[in-house]
């Protein structure tokens, strides 16, 4: 009992020592506590009860203030991982370099990390100024200083419902301005990924990057080349699934951040043709993200690279290669070029291949082949992809819908659908998409309906 009281008293003392910080009351920041994860609140309460400081921090606070739904909730505390872990029934320490604790509540994980000191204080950057080590515990104030933007360095105390703000982040947030903490050049040198993050947050907030934070982007863009490919891939994925993919890509281009570093972006933004397809794909992704649905990275990247695969596939067919072999070779050459820089992980690239390789198989509807197609593990994604192609007018929309209906049907309906095919005139039954596309361009042939209404994809 007494130790509890002392711990709490010490905690309060520490709280008051975060001077230099603004303590912003509920009326000013406007966070409605009911929108805060109860598990994140619980983690803070348990830690505070033990006498530690504990706050919800980062993206969640930023999103709550502007009325967006946070993706996840992180907690920052002055307790060390060893002190945190025993306080929760299901908690595990993760990370080798900088350890933090995952506190698990059913499906939700609250990432709980100890205050950390910034690299500038630790003096641990390489010759280019890139951070090598930032794994030292620090004070609350130092933890705020090591974060990237002022809007990402806000700490919400669910007990008092105040936001602690060392860098005028709430003010920037109200102005929807992305502002680097400290000297932008130094901070980009420490971690070039921050350039991409700046763009993503500005677009997400429907705001802008402050002039000082934006100015170095063009001249420092080449530093992104030093970022490990896997990290670049993660960031790229975040960008594409933030709910505003196309805007992000356009902004990257405007800021000169797309060149060379991501061959994928060169393909998406610079190549003539194929834009309609990509726009549809990104639009569909944005809609799914905003509706709180999941997005499959393989599907997304398969869509972004499809135009290239398609071009090379057709070229190979023209050169006399068999259809399936041609698409496999085309896929390999496109993926080889991309993975050099972007590190599309194996699990994604093999799914992408499957989605692509299924496409030629949808052109013919031969009963035996249909049943084999239905057994493919990625059939759903592949049929979804087919819908996208139909919406982009590169595949017959009625035929695409037939495949979708087939996949969604139960076994007896499927059997009937396949059986019904036998009753159709031969050319309709097997329905190759290419002949239909040609047909559409030339106008309908007598007796064959023209289907130009692409179905909506969602
Ligand atoms: P979101 O999760 O919506 O992408 P976020 O702000 O939560 O946005 P995370 O990558 O989850 O971003 O990181 C959590 C917090 O960690 C950030 O809010 C920021 O304070 C800090 N942070 C993340 N990446 C960096 C970085 N590269 N440099 C400095 N601080 C960072
Ligand atoms: Mg986050």
From TrEMBL:
**Alphabetized Gene3D superfamilies for the sequence:** Beta Polymerase, domain 2, cca-adding enzyme, domain 2
Q: Where is the composition biased (Basic residues)?
A: 435-444
Q: What is its EC number?
A: 2.7.7.19
Cross-referenced InterPro entries, in alphabetical order?
Answer: NT_sf, PolA_pol_head_dom, PolA_pol_I, PolyA_pol_arg_C_dom, PolyA_RNA-bd, tRNA_ntf/polyA_polymerase_I
The segment(s) forming the Polymerase A arginine-rich C-terminal domain are 320-442
> For this protein, what reaction is catalysed?
RNA(n) + ATP = RNA(n)-3'-adenine ribonucleotide + diphosphate
Q: Which domain of life is it from?
A: Bacteria
Record's keyword annotation contains Transport: no
Q: Which residues form the signal peptide?
A: none
Q: What is this protein called?
A: Poly(A) polymerase I
């Amino acid at each position: 009992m007494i130790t509890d009281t002392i711990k709490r008293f010490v905690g309060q003392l520490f709280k008051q020592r975060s001077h230099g910080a603004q303590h912003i009351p509920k009326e000013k920041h406007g966070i409605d506590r009911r929108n805060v994860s109860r598990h994140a609140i619980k983690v803070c309460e348990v830690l505070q009860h033990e006498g530690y400081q504990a706050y919800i921090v980062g993206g969640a606070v930023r999103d709550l203030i502007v009325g967006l739904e946070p993706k996840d909730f992180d907690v920052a505390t002055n307790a060390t991982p060893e002190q945190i872990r025993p306080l929760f029934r299901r908690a595990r320490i993760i990370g080798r370099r900088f350890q933090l604790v995952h506190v698990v509540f059913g499906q939700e994980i609250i990432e709980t990390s100890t205050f950390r000191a910034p690299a500038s204080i630790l003096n641990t950057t390489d010759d280019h100024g890139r951070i090598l080590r930032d794994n030292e515990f620090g004070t609350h104030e130092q933890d705020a200083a090591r974060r990237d933007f002022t809007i990402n360095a806000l700490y919400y105390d669910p007990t008092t419902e105040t936001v602690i703000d060392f860098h005028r982040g709430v003010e920037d947030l109200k102005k929807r301005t992305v502002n680097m903490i400290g000297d932008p050049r130094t901070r980009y040198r420490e971690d070039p990924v921050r350039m991409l993050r700046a763009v993503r947050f500005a677009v997400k907030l429907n705001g802008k990057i402050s002039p000082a934070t934006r100015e170095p982007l063009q001249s420092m863009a080449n530093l992104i080349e030093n970022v490990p490919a896997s990290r670049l891939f993660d960031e790229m994925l975040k960008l594409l699934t933030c709910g505003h993919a196309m805007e992000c890509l356009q902004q990257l281009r405007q800021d000169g951040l797309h060149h060379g570093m991501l061959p994928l972006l060169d393909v998406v933004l610079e190549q003539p043709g194929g834009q309609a397809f990509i726009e549809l794909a990104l639009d569909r992704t944005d809609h799914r993200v905003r509706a709180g649905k999941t997005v499959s990275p393989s599907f997304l990247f398969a869509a972004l690279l499809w135009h290239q695969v398609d071009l090379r596939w057709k070229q190979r067919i023209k050169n006399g290669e068999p259809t399936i072999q041609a698409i496999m070779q085309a896929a390999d050459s496109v993926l080889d070029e991309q993975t050099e820089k972007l590190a599309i992980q194996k699990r994604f690239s093999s799914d992408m291949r499957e989605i692509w390789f299924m496409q030629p198989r949808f052109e013919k509807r031969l009963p035996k082949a249909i049943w084999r197609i239905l057994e493919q593990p990625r059939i759903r994604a592949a049929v979804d992809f087919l819908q996208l192609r139909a919406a982009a007018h590169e595949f017959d929309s009625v035929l695409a819908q037939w495949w979708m209906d087939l996949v969604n049907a139960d076994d007896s309906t499927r059997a009937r659908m396949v059986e019904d095919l036998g009753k159709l005139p031969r050319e309709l039954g097997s329905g190759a998409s290419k002949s239909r596309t040609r047909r559409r361009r030339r106008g309908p042939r007598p007796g064959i309906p023209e289907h130009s209404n692409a179905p909506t994809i969602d």
